[in-house]
């Protein structure tokens, strides 16, 4: 499934949930379903700067595709990173770098977050793209 197809699925899921309290509940459920990150990966170098809460993000390159894992100490933020992982994980660095993450605005997420959480969301996306760029560089040297 392409990044755009994944985004369309998320947009469709959220379009069925009209009330924002219910949408937050759904985001929390997504965070609770996020597979646990290895405790050894919760290191300062994996903390995303710019997030008010603590968010650890790790990535590895497996068969040319980036695989992300993450955790957060805030339940809503954990759900948000879960959405980003769902969309971007298991794609090539080029696909990730070329993606336009329009689902964030289309589901109304950016307009329903506090300014600090919005900054954190941008920091998460930036860090995910940074990992993709680093893996692309590794591939071009390999």
Question: What does this protein structure show overall?
Answer:
The protein has helices spanning 3-15, 20-33, 75-88, 93-98, 103-106, 115-141; strands spanning 55-62, 65-72. By secondary structure, it is mainly α. Helix 1 crosses helix 3 (75-88) and helix 3 (75-88) packs parallel to helix 6 (115-141). The protein is built from 6 helices and 2 strands, in the order H-H-E-E-H-H-H-H. The chain has one domain (3-141): Sufe protein. Chain: A, CATH 3.90.1010. The relative contact order is 0.18. It has a two-stranded antiparallel ribbon with strand order 1-2. The model has no long low-confidence stretch (mean pLDDT 94).
The percentage of residues in β strands lies in: 5-15%
Q: In total, how many beta strands?
A: 2
- Stretches where pLDDT falls below 50 for ≥5 residues? none
Give the count of helical stretches.
6
What is the helical fraction, as a range of percent? 40-55%
The CATH class assignment is Alpha Beta
Q: Can you tell me the overall shape?
A: globular
What value does the Rg take, in angstroms? 15 Å
CATH topology: Sufe protein. Chain: A
Any key phrases for this structure?
6 helices, 142 residues, 55% helix, mainly alpha, Sufe protein. Chain: A, globular
In short:
Helices cover 55% and strands 11% of the residues. The protein is mainly alpha-helical. The two termini are 27 Å apart.
């Amino acid at each position: 499934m392409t990044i755009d197809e994944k985004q369309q699925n998320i947009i469709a899921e959220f379009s069925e949930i009209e009330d924002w309290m219910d949408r937050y509940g759904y985001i929390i459920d997504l965070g609770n379903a996020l597979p646990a990150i290895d405790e050894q990966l919760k290191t300062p170098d994996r903390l995303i700067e710019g997030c008010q809460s603590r968010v650890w993000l790790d990535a590895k390159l497996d068969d040319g595709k980036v695989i992300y894992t993450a955790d957060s100490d805030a339940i809503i933020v954990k759900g948000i990173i879960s959405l980003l992982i769902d969309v971007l994980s298991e794609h090539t660095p080029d696909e990730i770098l070329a993606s336009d993450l329009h689902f964030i605005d289309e589901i109304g997420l950016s307009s329903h977050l506090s300014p600090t959480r919005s900054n954190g969301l941008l920091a998460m996306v930036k860090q995910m793209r940074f990992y993709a760029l680093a893996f692309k560089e590794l591939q071009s040297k390999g």
